Amino acid sequence: MEKQSPFIPLYLPLTQRSLRVAVVTETYPPEINGVALTIQHMVEGLRQRNHQIQLIRPRQGTGDMPAFTANLQQILLPGFAIPRYPNLQLGLPAGSVLRKLWRASRPDVVHIVTEGPLGWSALNEARKLDIPVTSDFHTNFHSYTRHYGIGWMRRPIGAYLRHLHNRALLTMVPDRGLRHELETQGYQNLAIVGRGVDTDLFNPARRSMELRHSWGVSRNGLVVVHVGRLAAEKNLEAVVDAFDAMSARHPRAKLVWVGDGPQRSLLQARNSGHIFAGMQTGIDLAEHYASADVFLFPSLTETFGNVTLEAMASGLAVVAYNYAAAAEHIHHGENGLVAEFDNLSLFCDQAAILAGRPEMVARLGSNARQSADGLAWSKICERFEQLLLEIVDEGGRHGKQDRFIPGSDSNLGPGAMSPL
User: With 0-12 CB in 10 A as exposed, 13-18 as middle and 19+ as buried, what is 376?
Assistant: First the structure.
């Protein structure tokens, strides 16, 4: 492994607070998933606030090179492909590398994004060095087990996740529903850090009549879209069932699948009349959202579901189950439609209502966009920053990894910064 440089020194005025934050994650762009995009926004938000970030992640292919800027240092470590997801990496255990790195240049706080072998190593080494540790809960891995024929692993995986997060000083979750669920499972020291959406990128103005025409849709036709990984845990048959209910009322409606994954070939074989657009990113993704009318999202395994906010920002009428992002941001009948959790019949009924009411589709989409306007990433990053500052302050006062719950409304004053 190439020799890595330490954090680059940065001197700031005494009135400006800066932290050295080591972020440990097993996914990051250019990988495409909600976790990767969320942590990228968080990292960029901290950088814009003059914090120094040490980003530690697996190398994504032979051409992946570490990036260094004035306040971002990337450390690339070995990893291995996740079974059934060859484009995603898990990091290998890296205790000795992290120990040497953090002894040479000690971060103020270590933030663990994912719970794989690399995240576990980071937790162990940070605790040995008495560096405060925080974590994110992003993915219900234990809920995936029944979709991959390893249901017997649900309890051991759940116990592993709980043990890892409870060894951190604080675990950040995206909404109240997940916080309540985890608290009932014995998780401790949970704080809500929501999710934002890029309303400049995801915008109704990106609607493309050319794209709709390529789908064989007239100006006033109905386009239904699903965006996300095409995998067993995403409950994709519910998308098919709901669209069938819509087609009964609107026979010329089109269903567009945006995304890729292990279930794509099976879905295509069974649904030859559907449109499979594949993986889309950036402006292309935004155009696919905005060029549709209704967004179907029946997943039952989300910790949040960033795509819900992207669809709302794009001006779509969303149909989802009443949990995660939908429970947090959709008001039934006002800016979207929600169905009781795992009630497939009701989910299909809600979708079918929209098929026959274009004025309702337009009203819900317009209101959804207005709701999304208040979800800027800057506010989310500010909350993240505040919690890290509280953790560092409390860790410094206690000197050890003692248990405490940071206040959500602490009034943190400026502190003196020493050279790194």
Answer: middle
Q: 248: how many CB neighbours lie within 10 A of its CB? A: 12
Integer distance in angstroms from the first to the last C-alpha of the chain?
24
User: By CB neighbour count within 10 A (0-12 exposed, 13-18 middle, 19+ buried), where does 124 fall?
Assistant: middle
Alpha carbon 387 to chain centroid, angstroms: 18
**pLDDT 10s digits, 389-408:** 999 998 655 444 444 444 43
* Rounded CA separation 362/338 (Å): 17
Report the predicted TM-score, pTM, of the whole model to 2 decimal places.
0.78
Question: What are the structural domains, with CATH classification, of the chain?
Answer: 20-196+377-398 (3.40.50.2000), 204-372 (3.40.50.2000)
* Interior angle at CA 318, CA 228 and CA 305, nearest 5: 40
- Per-residue DSSP letter, 31: S
Residues 192-251 pLDDT 10s: 999 999 999 999 999 999 999 999 998 789 999 999 999 988 999 999 999 999 999 999
The SS3 of residue 332 is: strand
Q: Give the tokens for residue 374.
A: 């208040």
- 134 and 109 Cβ atoms separated by less than 8 Å: yes
Both tokens of residue 356?
């026959």
